[in-house]
Design a protein that fits this description.
The complex is a heterotrimer of chains A (326), B (293) and C (325). By secondary structure, chain A is α/β, with parallel strands linked by helices. Helices cover 31% and strands 23% of the residues of chain A. Chain A is globular and about 65 Å long. With 293 residues, chain B is mostly helical. The chains are: A alpha/beta (326), B mainly alpha (293), C mainly alpha (325). Chains in contact: A-C, B-C.
């Protein structure tokens, strides 16, 4: 395997609020290779978006990355000066956000928002920047891109807007794209088109893709590897097929079980009892133990990440075995 | 947070969280007491011409009058004790401010509830009036009214009511409309409960908290507006001087360096307004349901 | 676009018509028009002639038509005090007021937006808190009291600036203005600061609130994710969004600046229409009061119209929906 584009080691991002410390990301480690897609799965509040912001250096106060290394092709982004980090954003790492209605500035024309993204990183004439912008729009499948350049965001549909956002992310040929639920707000058919194009893009250009989502079915068809996050921690990691076919962590198992599927029509859907715990001053021990059927006294300790098989990791004292999966 | 608190206890506790607001409340209470008990605590009755002596006029702060009285804040051009003038002036300023705010709130509440309850044409006419009213600055409307009506405490109160009622009407209507669309009101209407019962038992209580916040802010605004109008010489008459009129009376002497005749009533006015605003700011945070955790 | 402007114009005419009715009722129906419109010093024969001339012996509806016709012709009666047409008197005083109001608004905008941005970007820093505290004070202190304090400190105690009048004025395109001479500027400073203070506080608050709101939006995060400099994120992405409400408020508040000029002009003896209306009220110069009222109403309607048009130019979303609707 080639050297990873992104390697995150023991990342910790905490929020220092008046009520106490919120450990939004706790000891997260993973890596993404060129041309590969890593899916980061979790419920809302599990810290998956905050992981993305931490990599981008866009955690707003009172939050802050307190520990860990974020290596982009071996270079630690945390050691960069603010202005050097700015030059990485949008140039070497691009990010796409969840709600296409909100990510484009409503009062600026699309060409303004594209040209500024190019000119922030290279000394390019406006005409050349416009040309590149037009090509980028064409590449993400926007019809008559030259004419659409001078439109305002609200003149696009939601799906088209997300394509514009993707086109902006592609403008500077980044090495890594972080996609934070970019298809959640879209119709299923449009979601499919965008997923297909993103996958093709990663394969063809060798761009590494970190895909953040709560939707296992999106990950199933898209990603190569998967990290499952719960309460700020990565609880399971492995290839998509292995994790989805044979989850080791009870939480992953619960997640897979709660997805309606055709194969189990008529059976009652299973759900995970209880709610995600508050991350505020979270007690030590496994964060999932309150909702876990397999929990016992040992779970009051913090479980370490173990590797029961090659390429697989799980953070649990009582991982499921193959036979335990019905 | 404890569950056992009554809403009132919660409001009091939340309010007390801000020391600045508590200071404002304490200051306002002092001012209110000074106004209420002005005849008891004033060194002199400023309206009693027999107690005034022209020889004592325009004495600087700390001077003694001919009959041994100390003018702590100086005296005005008629030999009146400024401190006593301020206590009596506060009575008038606060009376005009509170009375006009209260009446405006009642009228605005009634109009707003009517607009929300009857809807249709009634709503249209009332809200049109509110819109027109609010598109002109309060000072302009008050000024024109007083220009047509002439001076007087009653007329000033009337003018202040006219410029204020629209705020309450708009707020009451929007809260009542939200409430009206809820199902229990529809249920009550289906049961053919008398309209008065629906309005007073259901719509009214929900409109009150936002109105109270507006009212506190408006008392300060009304006091300031009254002072401005009186300063311009079109508010209260000279026989019943409010703080604004006291300030006006001293303005000419200020230019010749006798600052105290205007300055101290001005300080009293500013303390009154700021203390009310401090209370109002905190009250708005406490009563605003959107900010509650 | 033109359709929308025509519709706004029609609305404005309607409001103006309505206000003329209110003024008419105020003057003719509530008060006694003979008292209001005819000089109290006139003798019996003059009064009789004036009653006939004004048509006060005719039915009310007809009187209103006469009033409307004369108002449309610009005839709102003669000032008792100056013995010249009231409307002419007001138009003569208007430039002084407009100069003061424009300068005050300009000061409020040029200071208020940067200060508000500062307070919005760093709300917990001490300058941010200081700016906010200042704006709260500026909000609650009565304008006339601040004016008095300015006079007391800068004119009486320090003797730096004049507190009274307009100073020598210079002709600019046939209009007398103060800001072209040093002495004129010295006279302008205190009244303009006094008038600007309230609006300054308002603009600081608006800008601060808008900035804090905008900073939480995804488009700001996306702009930063594109690697834009802070200057561009704040100066273009944030500012352009918050300018829409700010410009609207500045425009709408310009009318209230003119109204508040009444107070400032009275304190600083600034010879504008605000001082004129107060003087006229004191000597019961009613034609001037009526004329002032109609002029100010027209001014307000014009301002609202202009704000609507500018607003539609600034916000692309409004422009599109108006074009469709």
């Amino acid at each position: 395997m080639s050297a990873p584009t992104l390697r995150v080691e023991n990342l910790r991002t905490y929020f220092f609020t008046r009520q106490g410390v919120v450990k939004a990301v706790e000891d997260a480690s993973f890596s993404v290779a060129p041309g590969k897609i890593l899916g980061l799965v979790g419920e809302s509040g599990s810290g998956k978006s905050m992981t993305g912001y931490s990599i981008m250096g866009l955690v707003d106060p009172p939050g802050r990355v307190v520990a860990g290394r974020i290596l982009l092709r071996g270079q630690d982004l945390r050691s960069l000066a603010p202005d050097d980090m700015r030059r990485v954003r949008g140039k070497r790492i691009a990010m796409i956000f969840q709600d296409p209605m909100m990510t484009l500035n409503p009062v600026l024309r699309v060409d303004t928002q594209m040209v500024e993204a190019i000119q922030a990183h290279a000394d390019v004439s406006r005409a050349a920047a416009l040309e590149r912008s037009r090509d980028a729009l064409a590449r993400v499948g926007i019809p008559s891109p030259a004419a659409r350049l001078s439109a305002y965001p609200h003149q696009f549909s939601g799906g088209m807007r997300q394509r514009v956002a993707i086109a902006i992310a592609l403008l500077n040929q980044p090495e890594l794209i972080i996609a934070d639920e970019p298809t959640t707000a879209l119709d299923v058919t449009i979601q499919g088109q965008i997923l297909f194009e993103m996958q093709k893009l990663a394969r063809e250009s060798g761009t590494a893709l970190l895909w953040i989502t709560h939707d296992l079915s999106v990950i199933a068809g898209l990603a190569d590897e998967i990290c499952v996050m719960y309460a700020g921690r990565i609880v399971e990691h492995g290839s998509v097929d292995e994790v989805l076919d044979a989850p080791l962590h009870p939480y992953t198992h619960g997640l897979i079980d709660s997805v309606p599927s055709r194969g189990r029509r008529g059976e009652p859907l299973r759900q995970i009892p209880g709610m995600t715990p508050s991350l505020l001053d979270l007690a030590p021990g496994c964060a999932f133990r309150e909702r876990c059927t397999r929990a016992d006294g040992a779970c009051a300790q913090d479980p370490a990440l173990s590797a029961p098989a090659a390429g697989r990791q799980v953070r649990c004292f009582h991982p499921l075995t193959q036979s335990a999966i019905a | 947070m404890q569950r056992e608190q009554t809403p009132l206890q919660r409001i009091v506790a939340d309010f007390a969280e801000s020391r600045l607001a508590l200071a404002g409340l304490a200051l306002f209470t002092l001012i209110l007491l000074a106004a209420l008990f002005a005849p008891l605590i004033s060194p002199q009755n400023p309206y009693d011409l027999a107690q005034l002596d022209v020889l004592d006029s325009r004495l600087p702060p700390g001077s003694r009058s001919g009959d041994g009285l100390t003018f702590w804040l100086g005296s005005d051009d008629q030999g009146r004790d400024i401190l006593s003038g301020i206590f009596y002036g506060l009575r008038i300023s606060l009376w005009v401010g509170v009375a006009s705010t209260f009446c405006a709130m009642i009228i605005g509440l009634a109009m707003g509830l009517c607009a929300a309850y009857f809807g249709g044409r009634t709503d249209g006419v009332i809200m049109r009036l509110v819109d027109i009213q609010l598109s002109f600055p309060a000072i302009l409307i008050a000024l024109i009214l007083l220009a047509l009506l002439g001076q007087g405490i009653g007329k000033t109160i009337f003018a202040l009511i006219t410029v204020q009622w629209a705020y309450y009407a708009r707020s009451a209507r929007s809260t009542a409309l939200v409430e009206r669309r809820k199902e229990y009101i529809e249920a009550a209407m289906c049961l053919a409960l008398p309209p008065a019962r629906i309005v007073f038992r259901h719509l009214l209580p929900n409109c009150l908290p936002p109105l109270l916040v507006i009212a506190t802010v408006q008392v300060a605004a009304a006091v300031a507006l009254e002072a401005t109008l009186s300063y311009l010489g079109i508010g209260v008459p000279i026989t019943e001087p409010s703080l604004g009129l006291l300030i006006k009376n001293g303005f000419d002497y200020m230019l010749s360096g006798k600052y105290w005749i205007s300055f101290f009533p001005g300080i009293a006015l500013v303390l009154t307004i700021v203390s009310i605003n401090l209370v109002a700011d905190q009250l708005r945070d406490v009563l605003n349901p959107r900010l509650q955790k | 676009m033109p359709v929308f402007i025509i519709r706004r114009l029609l609305q404005s005419v309607l409001v103006l018509f309505f206000m003329s009715l209110v003024v008419f009722v105020g003057v003719y129906a509530i008060g006694n028009p003979v008292d209001i419109l005819i000089n109290p010093q006139a003798d019996q024969a003059d009064i009789a002639r004036a009653i006939a001339a004004l048509g006060l012996d005719k039915p009310l509806a007809q009187q209103y038509l006469i009033f409307l016709k004369q108002a449309l012709a610009g005839d709102l009666g003669k000032s008792f005090a100056y013995d010249i047409p009231a409307i002419q008197l007001i138009l003569e005083r208007m430039p002084a007021t407009l100069e003061l109001a424009l300068l005050a608004t300009g000061m409020a905008v040029l200071l208020g937006i940067p200060l508000g941005l500062w307070a919005g970007l760093a709300p917990d820093s001490w300058p941010g808190k200081l700016i906010m505290a200042g704006s709260i004070l500026g909000f609650s202190l009565p304008t006339f009291w601040v004016g008095l304090m300015l006079i007391m400190v800068f004119a009486v105690e320090l003797g730096w600036l004049p507190s009274n009048g307009r100073g020598p004025s210079t002709e600019l395109l046939g209009v007398a203005v103060s800001f072209l001479s040093w002495e004129g500027i010295r006279h302008l400073v205190l009244p303009a600061v006094n008038l600007a203070l309230f609006k300054l506080s308002l603009i600081i608050r608006l800008t601060r609130a808008g900035t804090r709101e905008a900073l939480l939006q995804d488009y700001v995060k996306f702009a930063r994710a594109k690697g834009l400099s802070n200057a561009r994120v704040v100066g273009v992405h944030v500012l352009k969004n918050i300018m829409i409400p700010i410009v609207t408020v500045i425009g709408l508040e310009f009318g209230s600046v003119i109204a508040f000029a009444i107070v400032t002009e009275s304190i600083f003896a600034w010879p504008g229409m605000g001082k004129l209306i107060i003087d006229s009220i004191k000597v019961l110069d009613r034609p001037v009061i009526v004329a002032y009222l109609l002029v100010i109403v027209s001014l307000f309607i014009l301002i609202n119209l202009a704000v609507d048009i500018v607003y539609s130019l600034l916000d692309p979303r409004v422009r599109i929906s108006e074009a469709k609707g």
